[in-house]
Specification:
This protein has 339 residues and is of the alpha+beta class. The chain has helices at 55-63, 69-76, 83-91, 117-128, 152-162, 171-178, 199-214, 234-242, 250-261, 276-283, 287-292, 295-309, 317-338; strands spanning 2-8, 11-23, 26-36, 43-47, 50-53. Residues 97-107 and 263-270 have low confidence and may be disordered.
């Protein structure tokens, strides 16, 4: 199950949905429960660490699964829960033992036929930050496992959540990579420095690519195709046209490309982008506590803050960029200290 958010102008409503398989190789979604515009109305605080979910909602969820309904709703409605409840969940994350494992996971050879190339390109960038996707074939099949047994609708909500780790300055790079726009250019720097290319040509190739994807029946299996741009693709138009890329010099990008090709070379470590006090303030967590978090705990904390600060959610653009920079610094620090 997953939480879908539907935008109608400035209004947002929510539905709990579930992917199901009506026929071999086809996944669709069904609406389990319509939460309307205020999911908090279905949550009643009982104590600081316990909430009670609406009985009709709980029964609807449990009717469509063999898992315990409260645990599912705690995950799906996490950002609508009281802060004390969120802290308790962060300290004692629910076990995943009750979740069923796809049979496809047991045989990775079956994965390629179920994962569209566009999905693989997005995963490759989000996992490795690679604008140049010439090594896409090296993407480990296990990276695709989370997408198995998902409808196209659920996959798009999955990617929308994953894309929150991107800073607005990275959006155009991301678009350039996942829509394979580099194949239209022959300059040697095209795969890793798209900002130096002619913008009007990039725009033309991007619009052709997104329209082609909008008509791709293999991509939209289980979904209807019409003449209008699918609402799940609209966010890529916003990313491309509404945000400017970070300013980068050609020299800097050449050095970055050199380092990627010569892994033994490393620049000296960077100093923290902010003081410990500033880091503590933006994460609402003591700096000493942040240093003790595992990689998974840090990712979870970042996603929680990013959901509140992301510009698409009405948050502050500058604070979101600052949060992302600090998060990336802490990830590098975690990787260095654990190696």
């Amino acid at each position: 199950m997953y939480l879908a958010h539907l935008h109608t102008g400035s209004r947002v409503s929510y539905q709990i949905r579930q992917s199901f398989q009506p026929a071999a190789g086809i996944f669709r979604y069904r609406i389990v429960y319509d939460l309307g515009e205020d999911p908090t109305s279905f949550i009643e605080p009982f104590t600081d660490h316990i909430v009670l979910f609406n009985e009709d909602l709980l029964q609807a969820v449990e009717h469509h699964t063999n898992r315990e309904g409260n645990a599912i709703l705690e995950q799906l409605l996490y950002r609508f829960l009281p802060e004390e409840m969120q802290r308790r969940i962060d300290l004692f994350p629910p076990r995943s033992a009750g979740q069923t494992t796809s049979a496809l996971c047991k045989n990775e050879k079956n994965i390629p036929g179920h994962i569209h190339l566009f999905d693989r390109k997005r995963l490759y960038y989000l996992r490795y930050g690679a604008v140049d996707q010439s090594r896409l074939s090296r993407l480990h099949e296990k990276c695709c496992v989370p997408l198995l047994d998902m409808s196209r609708d659920q996959r798009e909500y999955f990617f929308a959540a994953e894309e929150l780790v991107l800073s607005p300055g990275d959006y155009q790079q991301y678009i350039f990579a996942i829509f394979d726009i580099q194949k239209h250019f022959h300059q040697s720097f095209a795969p890793w420095f798209p900002e130096a290319l002619a913008k009007d040509e990039i725009v033309e190739h991007f619009l052709e690519a997104i329209c082609r994807l909008n008509r791709d029946k293999a991509f939209w299996i289980g979904e209807s195709i019409n003449a209008h741009l699918h609402h799940h693709l609209v966010r890529y138009l916003i990313m491309f046209f509404d945000f400017s890329p970070d300013h980068r010099s050609f020299t800097h990008e050449f050095a970055e490309s050199f380092m990627r090709d010569h892994r033994q070379f490393k620049w000296p470590g960077k100093n923290p982008p902010q003081t410990p006090e500033k880091i503590s303030k933006i994460f609402s967590t003591p700096y000493n506590t942040l240093k003790t978090l595992s990689k998974e705990q840090l990712n979870k904390l970042y996603r929680k803050k990013a959901m509140k600060l992301h510009p698409d959610k009405g948050g502050d653009h500058d604070l979101f960029v600052e949060l992302t920079e600090i998060y990336q610094h802490l990830r590098r620090k975690f990787k260095t200290s654990s190696s």
